[in-house]
Amino acid sequence: MPSTAEHQRLTEHRQKIADWKDWGPYLSERAWGTVREDYSAYGTAWDHFPHDHARSRVYRWNEDGLAGICNREQQLCFALALWNGQDSILKERMFGLTGPQGNHGEDGKEYYFYLDSTPTHSYMKMLYKYPQVAFPYANLVEENGRRGFADFEYELLDTGVFGGARYFDVVVEYAKVQPADILVRITAVNRGPQPAMLHVLPTLWFRNTWSWGYESGPMGKLPRRPNLKQVDGDESYLSIQADHPVAGVYYLYAEGGDDLLFTENETNNQRLFGSSNSSPYVKDAFHRAVVDGEADAVNPARQGTKAAVQYLFEIGPGQTESVRLRIAGQEAPASSPFSGFDSVFADRLAEADEFYSANQKPGLSEDERRIQLHALAGMLWSKQLYYYDVEQWLRGDPGAPPPPPERKGGRNHDWEHLNNFDVISMPDKWEYPWYA
Question: Which of 5, 182, 200, 257 has the smallest number of CB atoms closer than 10 Å to its CB?
Answer without folding.
Answer: 5
